[in-house]
Design brief:
This protein has 14 helices and 17 strands. The protein is of the alpha/beta class. The strands form four sheets. It has a seven-stranded mixed beta sheet, sandwiched between helices. A four-stranded antiparallel beta sheet has the order 1-2-3-9. The longest helix has 21 residues. Bound molecules: zinc ion. Zinc ion binds next to loops.
């Protein structure tokens, strides 16, 4: 009989974390001429391995399909660009990186991070699977190879370009369909005395802050520090330190080194593992109850939208992030409830959201239309967007957030 297997320990995936039904790929924004064509919907049924506790989405969609025409360009978010600059400056100083060093970044996107090392005269190598995004990085002077990282491609890249003093993998660890092969790739890229840093959203915050819209087909894994450490260990990497970050609603920056040079982990590692255990993340039972909270968010948002419509109030969206598409598809929200949304990225403007077919306009549209409510979809940029939209209240408009709970401000 067919059985889903855990991609970390091969245990049988018999347990559900949350089932969000069927949804199209969240980054497949539609041009107008494809609106009448059929769309492919895939399951968003997240499981948890009863043995190693890795929360994971079965690979319903192959990575090649997801990343072939990726529309996400990191440099369109001000706060993310600032975050990258701070990190680059701090780590370059700490590690004493200079003209003879090498910084390799996996999933280097449009060069949003590596360009800060280039500016300091530190040699870099970007490894980016999406060719169109890699091209943008190259045009900015960031050396970039179009490649999926795995054990074999990692070895080949290290042979051609050398091993790195610092390997960075930001917001990619959840996206890899085979974390065991990817971890071996990271280990191949780093010098024996080198450092690997990885950033990824923390499962603890996803559960606490009910960020269920960060579940989409591109996210194959949802890590606690404990499960991430288990995954890295398959590649011979040991977690030596961890920092908590506010990005993406609460992320971890994990430091890992090859086992031979790792030494003892910092006290941060122990205290974060203790916090996870306290929250129940180190038992199967501790993960139950999340599905009920997701149901509540859906009910409250739909209640709000139906009431607004019945009262003749106009609601539009702000932002067209992937997470918005999970929320809108899961709730079944279409243009009759949310007339349109706006986004700063010109790659999304003029297109339509997958599944829901909500049109995406430039942000100026909101100023011209003066709607009653603006539903902010990228809640992780709440402070930045609240500032950008502070003029909405001049015409009596209000901002709406659906997560972690419905809030009209
Ligand atoms: Zn497992």
């Amino acid at each position: 009989m067919f059985a889903l297997r855990c991609r970390l320990c091969r245990g049988e995936l018999t347990e559900t974390f949350v089932d969000l039904g069927m949804s199209p790929l969240c980054e497949s924004y539609l041009p107008a001429d494809r609106l009448d064509a059929p769309e492919t919907f895939y399951p968003l049924h997240v499981r948890i391995c009863p043995d190693c506790l890795l929360v994971q989405l079965p690979a319903y969609v192959p990575g090649e399909e997801i990343f072939a025409e990726y529309a996400y360009f990191s440099s369109y978010s001000d706060s993310w660009v600032a975050h990258a600059r701070r990190y680059a400056t701090a780590i370059a100083d700490t590690l004493g990186l200079g003209p003879t060093s090498l910084v390799t970044e996996v999933a280097s996107n449009d060069g949003y991070l590596l360009r800060h090392f280039v500016e300091r005269g530190v040699p870099v190598l970007g490894v980016e699977p999406a060719a169109n995004v890699a091209e943008v990085a190259r045009s900015r002077g960031v050396r970039t190879e179009v490649e999926f990282l795995g054990a074999e491609s990692g070895r080949k890249l290290a042979e051609r370009f050398g091993r790195a003093d610092l390997v960075v993998a930001n917001n990619v660890y959840p996206h890899v369909p085979d974390p065991v092969d990817f971890s071996a790739g990271l280990a191949a890229l780093v010098k024996p005395s080198g450092l690997v840093t990885l950033e990824f959203p923390h499962l603890l915050r996803l559960i606490e802050r009910r960020q269920y819209d960060t579940i989409y087909h591109e996210h194959y894994q949802y890590y606690s520090l404990r499960t991430a450490a288990r995954a890295l260990a398959t590649g011979g990497l040991v977690v030596t330190d961890v920092e908590e970050l506010s990005s993406h609603g609460g992320s971890l920056r994990v430091h890992a080194r090859p086992a031979a040079t790792a030494g003892a982990p910092s006290s941060n590692v122990k205290s974060l593992l203790d916090a996870e255990a306290e929250a129940g993340l180190h038992t199967l039972a501790g993960h139950r109850g999340f599905a009920d909270q997701v149901f509540r968010i859906r009910r409250d948002l739909l209640d709000f939208l139906f009431t607004a419509r019945a009262q003749g109030r106009r609601v539009v969206g702000y932002g067209a992030p992937g997470k918005g598409n999970t929320l809108l598809n899961h709730c079944g929200i279409r243009p009759d409830l949310l007339a349109y949304t706006v986004d700063r990225s010109p790659h999304k403007q003029g297109r339509f959201l997958p599944g829901t077919h909500i049109p995406v306009h430039p942000p100026e549209r909101i100023d011209a239309d003066r709607p009653d409510f603006v539903l902010v979809l990228p809640w992780n940029l709440r402070a930045e967007i609240s500032t950008q939209l502070c003029h909405v209240r001049h015409w009596g408009g209000r901002l709406v957030f659906a997560i972690p709970e419905l809030e009209v401000v």
